[in-house]
Amino acid sequence: MRQHPAQLAEENGPADGFDTAMECLLVVLLAFMPLAFGTVDAWSEEIVVAISGAMIVCLLLKIIVRRDFRCLWSWACLPMGLFLLLAVAQLVPLPAGILSAVSGNTAALKGELLGDLPRAETAMKYITLSFYSLPTERTLRLALAVAAVFLVTVNVYRSRGQIKRLLAVIAAVGGAVAFLALVQIVTGAEKIYWLVPTGRGIGRGGPFLNGNNYCQFMNLSLGAALGLLLIRLEEAFRAGPVTLSNVVERLGEKKFRAIWCLVGVVTLGVMTVFLSLSRGGMISLLIGLACAVVVLVLKRRLDTLGWVVAVMALGAFICVLYVGFDAVYDRLVSLGRFQAYQGRWQLAKETATVWTQFPVFGTGLGTHRFIHPMFDSSTIPVLAAHAENEYAQLAEETGVIGLLLVAFFGLVIGRNYLRCIRQQVPSVRIAAIGLGAGLLAVMVHSFTDFGQRLPANACLSAVICGLLVSMGRMPRPQGRSTAVRKGASALARPVAAVGLIGVLAVWTWAMVTADTARRAEACWREARLREKEIRKKDWAVGNADYAGLISVTGRAVQAEPRNVIYRHALNVYRWRSVSRLTEPGTGNLILGPEAIRSAEYIVDDLDRVRSICPTFGPSYCLAGQLERFVLGRARGAALIRKGFRLAPCDADACLAAGTLEAHEGNIRDSIDRLQRALKLNDDLFQSVINVYLCQINRPELAVEVVKYSVRGLLCVARIFEGDERYGELAVEARAQVAALVRSQCEQPDAAAPVLAHMAYICLRDEDYDAAVKYYRRALAKDCSKIGWRLNLAEALAKTGQTSEALDQAHICLRLMPQMAAAKRMIADLRIQQTLVE
Q1: Taking a C-beta distance cutoff of 8 angstroms, is the pair 445, 281 a contact?
Q2: How many CB atoms lie within 10 A of CB 177?
Q3: For the chain, which terminal residue's Cβ has fewer other Cβ atoms within 10 angstroms, N or C?
Q4: What per-residue confidence (pLDDT) applies to 479?
Q5: How far apart, in Å, do the first and last CA atoms of the chain sit?
């Protein structure tokens, strides 16, 4: 039956070039963000800022040009706008007196850390609430993009057809991402798109580097797909119940193709969430789906839609059973072990501790990774860039004000959700059941993840929230659209014109800063590659290599001079380039006038780094080392201790603090800090040993500091065995190695290398029976080690088990046909066997 033009307008929305442009831009944005690794790089963030800016400009132009258009107001806009103003307030330099009144701990900590700087009084005259403005600006840019997406969604998607189109786009993008994830899992791909390494084994998160982030995106996409599926089912069965028999009869109809496609998308998405092995993703998905089922029960629709839920659940279970049930089961079982999430719980507690120090306004958006280390008590070398708890990090960075604003926003969205599901007459509002399930899953998952920090997830959440607000404000099916019937208010056009000027100014700033971040990050990526190659050569490279490294890092700093990570690295490279000459016997630096001048320049630049980010510990440590040990200035010791306080989980900071305490005679503190440095980075054994051996001439302390490490004790023993002065210490180190390895071997889950080392010790000490026992245990855990097998053959021969020794030697020869040692052993054993016979 042909529809009346008015009905078509109600279904698809009024024809409008602005709406078409905004819809196209939003589709491009939703498709681009997840495929660009979730938008974690500066180049992709710049694209997001550009597209979102174009969308909000189109919206304001529509308000100005279209007299009949009425902008939709929602109370959700109030907390969103206030949140953006809070971020701006964190960037505004405030007089020291005002800052002390509103955030006394911020003023006190900055004063304590920066009080030793030259012209400190002038620098501390005006202070920002944010401890580091650059990440606050970056997060503000992304928050602006998210706000723009929300406003466009609310004001553009007002008709049934528009909402269905948007849900279809989200479902299609989610299905494509889920399919990519499944293919990567099935093929065992360790790289995203088979090109980009994840560093986490198989790429279980599709285009996302982190499986938890993938799950948040997929749960939101599943909510949209489920919502559209409910709409399609209502449309297909308006005249009768949605029973399985009716469905079977009408399978050939065209409208059912879309329904089964949506069932497939939901099934595929659920399956990949489980195969991602994200415990938080699985649990939050189950909670979200359970919520949807409960709502369907309350609305008395589960009796007709229950078969759909059953088909999707059964399909997902069968696929998981086929592809990787064992891994999923093991992952779920680990929920019962506290150790599985102990690290995240500890991180959340430490983040809450930070919030208690800055409870009202927080430390500044995006500053977690620069403020949290001073509260970190772990010995995990990887820097926690996020708190793994969105709510704890939000409270830390924005204080109770930011937390309350987000809670207010959530309450408004929840009110609109309830308004939608209370609608008894079948309409597009039924999609709210699926959308609400996806949002609930993300809210639950955010207790153990930081997925909303990714623009791909945050913007998709904004779209879902915008749809709920738009549907909540829609008239009843028999009514007319208020957007078409009512015109704009008299003030709308001038306000929109002023707003357009403001938006253009704000987005110009956002685009300029985003572009500088992109250019700087590109140079930094090249610098990291150069550094990686130089590290492989233990920094023993020529002037040309150092010049290239310093040059490309300098370009990164020139593009983004307030980036303390880039500037600190540049100063590290500068110092390494001028401190390559050492005394052959002691390893002490040979410093000429040029090196002294370079040290003074580096210290001055590090002071500027400290003023940019007062809590960046590594810069304190480097400046303190240069001042204390190169320039001979007394304040160096205080800087090193400040650096260790700010970055106790930085291995270099621990090494610097331990070295300082050793020189000042605080031996116990020195050992504690150097042992912590070794726990964080076991490549520092040589540097730690040199502190006691070469710098303070206390070789016995070298054994003490590494007594808990087999590798460290062996390193000490090898050094001492070459010098007759330390013969007794070498013997002591070897004895401690044997005792330490033996105690580790007594554990039933002892590692294969530990068992093999114990076997080697027994073989060297001519305890052949014990050597055979330990080598057998080691090979039972790792049978690929040919050297261990050959040593086992030698130990067997020494115990008279010649036949078995020959068998082991032959296995070595089969694994490595050209192995000369195995050939010699076989020949010797055959001669020995002949003599015995």
Answers
A1: yes
A2: 26
A3: N
A4: 44
A5: 103
